[in-house]
């Protein structure tokens, strides 16, 4: 139905194609954009195009950055012998926000998923193995605690162990502040298995 | 914290300023945009700028359109003597989707809200009154069933009644398929007051 006429429909359609934006949100966003001053809309549009044009992979850890080497890898104070493997740049950011991790990262850009047809060669795994030729002491696998994340963790661990580099996995269990009553059984069992001495 | 470096941070910031997009969604969207092909990003950016540049108010009903007269007002088959007053273009679209309303609309672009300092002169009310000089039989007030919407409905009704034009208000009550148990008391009382003969 041609409710809004061409330009608005096209904008709603483009916005609705973005992840997490349904048709209602797309409508609301579209009308918000149309009511914004033209210069602000132009600025947003330009920021989008520029980000896309300028952002690339860090040549060491493959996180998204607009430099040749990302700020973490470029920091000589970080421990470059400790590599945390994450699925994507947002996960890297989540650990960076803790401000407590001193090592560097490796961003896989995905996880192995036979269901979705994503194999080891579709993520930045070869690149991780290449990095191990340097002076690496430990690889901390921080893929998600999902089926894909666990599969990927197992795969990486089997791949790296023969090289003699220490491979660890971040703990999974009850989230801090979590109420046991509301936590799923798998997590509860995982927390039990992973119990530590007090 | 300079987690992602300039271009990404700027993009996340711009996206998070949009309505209904929190910082987490803004991050997700930003990375999605960066992973999209450049031509698709450019297309989205251009669609945004073009929509903003080309969309204006319909010179009759003040809905957003990219023509001088919107498709509804331009349709001679619609009943131009029946005007439904709505708060915004999305509300117009909601009624258009029913496909059952034969009249035309008037879009106020807001509602009277003393709390927010929005008075009668801040919405397209003068424009509505001007339209009554034509051949109008009925004004159906379809502002929201909120405090602001009700205030606006009362105000418009008092303004129009002296002109002799029929003024009606859409019914408010229990939504179709709504379970009484989960419906607030005010709505339940409103539904009771508005009961009709069977």
Keywords:
homodimer; 198 residues; alpha/beta; Dna Topoisomerase Vi A Subunit, Chain: A, domain 2; four-stranded parallel β-sheet; two-stranded antiparallel sheet; 8 helices; 43% helix; globular
Structure description:
Two copies of one chain form a homodimer. Chain A has helices at 6-16, 23-35, 38-54, 71-74, 89-98, 125-131, 147-160, 185-193; strands at 56-57, 64-65, 79-86, 103-107, 138-141, 166-169. Chain A has a domain at 79-172: Dna Topoisomerase Vi A Subunit, Chain: A, domain 2 (3-Layer(aba) Sandwich). In chain A, strand 1 (56-57) and strand 2 (64-65) form a beta hairpin. In chain A, the strands form two sheets. A four-stranded parallel β-sheet of chain A has the order 4-3-5-6. In chain A, strands 1-2 form a two-stranded antiparallel sheet. Chain A contains eight helices and six strands, in the order αααββαβαβαβαβα. Chain A has 198 residues and is of the alpha/beta class. At the A-B interface, helix 1, helix 2, helix 3, strand 2 and helix 5 of A face helix 1, helix 2, helix 3, strand 2 and helix 5 of B.
Give the secondary structure arrangement, pairings included.
The structure is a homodimer of 198-residue chains.
Chain A: H1 6-16, H2 23-35, H3 38-54, E1 56-57, E2 64-65, H4 71-74, E3 79-86, H5 89-98, E4 103-107, H6 125-131, E5 138-141, H7 147-160, E6 166-169, H8 185-193
Parallel strand pairs in A: 3-4, 3-5, 5-6
Antiparallel strand pairs in A: 1-2
